[in-house]
Design brief:
The complex is a heterodimer of chains A (949) and B (94). By secondary structure, chain A is of the alpha+beta class. Chain A contains 22 helices and 48 strands. In chain A, helix 5 packs parallel to helix 6, helix 8 runs parallel beside helix 9 and helix 11 packs across helix 12. In chain B, the strands form two sheets. In chain B, strands 3-4-5-6 form a four-stranded antiparallel beta sheet, with no helix packed on it. A two-stranded antiparallel ribbon of chain B has the order 1-2. At the A-B interface, helix 18 of A face helix 1 of B.
Chain lengths: 949, 94
């Protein structure tokens, strides 16, 4: 063994011996070969300790050769691209890779945390429920979490791209070993659309590296690959794990993209809608359970085999093999043929098949039949294994002996990898004879082929040593759960498997029990004196292996997280210094601060301009819905508390819509453009919801009403011109509107042309001033806006945003649905009770208004507040009446100032508020209590003569 | 994620649909007493097995339809249009 690494064999393996790959582990430079995984390269270089165990900080070495790895979880890279808990056996080695152990201080090889092992009884299952109580858990929590941590999360924003993709197929084959390749080809031959996924870097499975039992395996692998290539439309994805099966054949895949291009995504997350799923997922080997079965150098026998045949790496100089089944005998032969010393084969079975024993004899490998490892020695790495010869009743050992070795390959049998079958709802049952789980259900859309579908080897031997300290017999290596922890759970009456799992954390680690669950089922059964087939397994859930969150997010990040909705005049707003804010997806203007002006000052200026002269506001996000048809008015009348029958064309009603529970859904206007053509407006935020609401009732409750519902929110821009000078300015635009107060009174709508384009103009007022809501087709918005600004320049017209609008309407006591109202508000609370009571015909929510809860005397009612002390009001501040015994008597829902004079004002909901006008309430804001006076609404222009000018 | 067969559009992902609760509920007239009315507002069946329910293809064609679904297995037994009668399906049928 030479410069290829002290444990690299001179020949054999499928790595490229001509290409060295430099890498680092814990700051030490090593070299591997192209084709190595991080684990095979570390083993080749004799790196035995790669981590420290979770609780006891015992040294641990590479354990497996696959995704089920519990010890070799390493931190790759650092900074924004760091990958915590990368599984070394599946981490592809690349030049410059830097890896670090995730635990151990000051280093993984010399870890002071080892002292925890000496205090092992303190860390028994559930220790945090019983210890570290004084003075309180939090004093210890930080330290304990740091010591038990598994890797560091990457720092900073993820610099890599990910993609989420969709697929439809008739057949999805999971696993491209021989069985998977055959299944995929057969399906393609039958005319199906096929997708074949393989989590390894290459197709071929075990046969690709010589791990198949059949001697003709490599031949038929080539034939299989050739047959599949005859169907180029079969999509083959390597480095792709199927991670979850969901309802109706939906499967998720996680692909590690292998590309040197900087444009390529790092990973892809595929969502596949399948007709049928075929699992060719093979089986995972299970460990044996005996004292100190976790030392570096102890690994699964099949891993020893794969490191030998695929990577040309010997896992030790003198390897002992221990088993309860047939599988390790060919391995003993393969090791010997490669020049690696095999210390012996330890088999816990009574009767070993003749031909297997003969295989060992011809190589002069000692066979220890009816024996099982009972203990091991070696402080930092394995040095010796103690084996015991089992008594005939296999309940004890009759003699022990020690075998020197530096590696132990153990096999507790192979458990079929059927997680995806379980995700799909399939039940698994433990088979006592074969010592593994087997599928019970025949699922309509899931088939199982190959090793995953074959019956296990019958009459396997003992898996759990009957002697040895149970506190040192590991069942779950990653979470440091031992046989004594399982016994403790049972003693404390956590006997259901799901309870044992949560109490001891067995099977809950990053490996999700891939090498622990089977052992824990056998052990629990043994401890309770029942058959393992009577011990149900815990629920198996996605994902099968960990999935990077970024891959699930895909491209839906930042600007693409949710669609943005821009007002027709967006560019103008931006160009004129608007502060924009997202309201329900719409980018709306808050205010337009001038140079050197604060946001607050801008709002005051804008609101004043509206009261004193004229302002212009872009309200295009306002919801607009047309209902047409002979039954349009009868239909819409069923939604509002206001009586709409007899609504004359052109007359605008302000109405409230309720849910069936009687609570407020939305407010807006209703106008009949013609008897069979209704136009309603809604709040911006609820436009979509109200449209869906109308459709739902029409389609499901009243399908006989002849109507069509057409949302036109985006089709019409809504420009609000408000202020005493509004009529004069609108009149300067070329158009055919008669703006005289007699012809165009308050609360009417007129249709006509403006600047040569059709327009619908409402006289409605949210500001409390003379206001025209000018609706023009959205593409004419800019032209109309510009014309209005030009026409109003001499009067000092100003554009204004939402903050000013909200302050103006608050002075008038106008509702802001969602702020002044919530899910409990009924019309009476906001002063509209009489209107609702007067309506004779049915409407949605009408019956609920009679419920006792909605007719209580002491409900919260919308009223105003003024501030004698001049203290500003803060939305959300709670109110309490003098001598109140309630926790709260209401809260402030809107807050602002008198527009022209600046005194603080608020709207609030107050218990029995309308009966308390003039009296005092206490306002609670953080640690301050201030008195306020209850006021009648509106604060401004009580007669409404400004609006009705 | 369910794959739902919209009666008009064919099978689509569950994400395109909005669930609308129990189907075949009858809106009582105004003359009922409070108990009957609040039962209509708030009480729903919660069966294990066959459930008749409403769905809307909100992010597709926008139409409402009814579905017979097995709440244990999520198997969709039938979809049918609003106004059509309750279908004759048992929970076990595929």
């Amino acid at each position: 063994m030479d410069r290829y690494g002290p444990y690299r064999l001179a020949t054999g393996g499928q790595i490229d011996r001509t290409t060295h790959v430099p890498f680092q582990f814990d700051g030490v430079r090593y070299a591997g070969l192209r084709g190595d995984s991080l684990a095979s390269a570390l083993l080749a270089n004799g790196v035995r300790i790669v981590g420290r165990s979770f609780k006891f900080h015992r040294p641990r070495g590479i354990f497996t050769c696959g995704v089920e790895e519990p010890h070799g979880l390493l931190q790759i890279g650092q900074g924004a691209r760091a990958v915590p808990s990368a599984r070394a056996p599946v981490q592809e080695l690349y030049p410059g890779l830097t890896a670090n152990a995730q635990s151990g201080w000051p280093s993984v090889r010399f870890d002071l945390g080892r002292t925890l092992d000496a205090l092992a009884p303190l860390w028994a299952a559930g220790f945090y429920n019983k210890t570290f109580k004084w003075p309180n858990w939090h004093s210890y929590e930080g330290v304990i979490r740091r010591m038990a941590g598994l890797g560091k999360a990457p720092v900073g924003a993820d610099p890599d791209r990910y993609e989420t993709l969709n697929l439809h197929c008739d057949v999805l084959v999971v696993g491209a070993g021989r069985s998977g390749l055959a299944a995929a080809t057969d399906a393609a031959e039958a005319g199906a659309r096929v997708v074949l996924v393989e989590q390894d870097t290459q197709c071929g499975g075990r046969a690709a590296w010589g791990g198949s039992e059949s001697t003709t395996s490599s031949e038929s692998l080539e034939v299989l690959k050739r047959r599949l290539r005859a169907y180029p439309e079969v999509r083959v994805l390597t480095r792709t794990a199927a991670v979850g099966v969901y309802d109706h054949g939906v499967v998720t895949l996680s692909e590690r993209v292998n590309s040197s291009s900087s444009r390529a995504p790092r990973e892809r997350f595929w969502i596949v809608r399948t007709g049928r799923i075929i699992l060719a997922t093979g089986a995972l080997e299970q460990p044996l359970i005996f004292a100190n079965n976790d030392r570096p150098g102890i690994m699964l026998a099949d891993a020893v085999r794969q490191y030998l045949l695929r990577y040309g790496v010997a896992c030790g100089r003198r390897i002992l093999l221990a088993t309860n089944n047939d599988s390790v005998y060919s391995l003993a032969r393969q090791l010997t043929d490669a020049g690696v010393e095999v210390a012996g084969v330890v088999d816990s079975r009574q009767h070993i098949p003749e031909h297997l024993a003969a295989m060992l004899q011809s190589s002069r490998i000692p066979l220890f039949a009816r024996s099982i490892p009972t203990d091991t020695r070696g402080f930092s790495t394995l040095r010796q294994v103690q084996i015991g010869r089992l008594t005939p009743d296999v309940c004890g050992v009759e003699s022990v002996q020690n075998i020197d070795c530096d590696a132990l390959g153990m096999s507790g049998g192979f458990n079929p990898t059927l997680h995806l079958y379980a995700h799909a709802g399939g039940k698994l049952a433990f088979d006592d004879d074969t010592g593994r789980l087997r599928p019970v259900d025949a699922l309509a859309n899931v088939g199982i082929v190959g090793r995953a579908g074959r019956d296990g080897e019958r009459s396997v031997g003992l898996r759990l040593s009957p002697v040895g300290d149970p506190q040192r017999q590991w069942v779950d290596f990653l979470h440091d759960v031992t046989v004594s922890d399982l016994a403790l759970a049972l003693r404390e009456n956590f006997t259901a498997t799901e309870h044992v799992k949560r109490y001891t954390t067995v099977g809950m680690a990053a490996d999700q029990g891939k090498t622990a669950t089977i052992g824990s089922l056998s052990t629990l059964a043994k401890l309770q004196g029942v058959l393992a087939s009577q011990q149900p397994h815990t629920t198996i859930r996605p994902p099968f292996t960990s999935v990077t969150l970024g891959a699930i997010a895909g491209r839906s990040l930042g600007e693409r997280f949710s669609p943005r909705r821009y007002l027709p005049l967006h560019d103008w707003h931006v160009a004129n210094g608007a502060i924009l804010q997202d309201f329900g997806g719409w980018q709306r203007v808050v205010t337009y601060p001038r140079a050197g002006e604060s946001r607050e000052a801008a709002v005051v200026r804008e609101a004043r301009a509206v009261r004193e002269s004229v302002g212009l506001y872009d309200g295009s996000s306002l919801g607009k819905i047309e209902i047409r048809g002979p039954d349009a008015l009868a239909f819409i009348d069923r939604f509002y508390i206001n009586s709409l029958t007899g609504l004359a064309p052109g007359r605008v009603r302000y109405g409230l819509m309720l849910k069936e529970t009687g609570t407020l859904l939305d407010d807006g206007t209703v106008v009949a453009l013609a008897p069979d053509h209704i136009l309603i407006t809604t709040t911006s935020a609820n436009a979509g919801q109200v449209h869906a609401w109308l459709e739902e009732w029409h389609q499901t409750e009243w399908p006989d009403l002849k109507i069509a519902i057409v949302p036109v929110t985006e089709q019409w821009a809504t420009l609000s011109l408000a202020g005493p000078r509004a009529r004069a300015i609108l009149g300067r635009l070329p158009g055919d509107f008669d703006l005289s107060p007699h012809a165009f009174p308050h609360l009417t709508l007129r249709e006509g042309t403006l600047l040569g384009a059709r327009a619908r103009v409402y006289r409605v007022s949210f500001t409390g001033e003379l206001s025209y809501e000018i609706n023009v087709p959205a593409q004419r918005a800019a032209e109309t806006w510009g014309a209005l600004l030009e026409a109003g320049a001499s009067e000092g017209i100003q554009v204004f945003g939402l903050d000013a609008l909200m302050n103006l309407r608050m002075e008038k006591g106008f509702l802001h649905v969602g702020a002044d109202t919530d899910g409990t508000t009924v019309p009476e609370d906001v002063g509209w009770g009489a209107v609702a009571r007067k309506k004779a015909t049915d409407f949605i929510g009408k019956r609920s208004l009679k419920l006792p809860e909605h007719t209580r005397e002491d409900r919260f009612q919308l009223v105003g507040l003024t501030s004698p002390s001049g203290t500003d009001f803060v939305v959300g501040s709670h109110l309490r009446l003098p001598d109140s015994i309630q926790a709260t008597d209401g809260w402030i829902t809107s807050a602002g100032r008198r527009v022209l004079t600046g005194e603080p004002l608020a709207l609030c909901v107050l218990r029995g508020g309308r009966g308390r006008v003039g009296s005092s309430v206490n306002v609670y804001n953080a640690d301050r209590i201030v008195a306020a006076t209850v006021a009648d609404l509106p604060f401004f222009d009580r007669s409404g003569e400004c609006m009705r000018a | 994620m369910l794959r739902i067969p919209c009666p008009w559009c064919g099978t689509r992902d569950e994400l395109e649909f909005v669930f609308g609760g129990q189907a075949h509920r009858v809106r009582p007239g105004a003359a009922v007493d409070d108990a009957v009315w609040t039962e209509y507002l708030f009480t729903r069946e919660n069966p294990v097995g066959l459930h008749l329910e409403r769905w809307s293809h909100a992010y597709g064609c926008g139409r409402w339809f009814n579905m017979a679904r097995d709440t244990r297995t999520h198997a969709i037994l039938k979809v049918y249009r609003p106004g059509e009668p309750r279908p004759e399906v048992g929970a076990e049928h595929g």
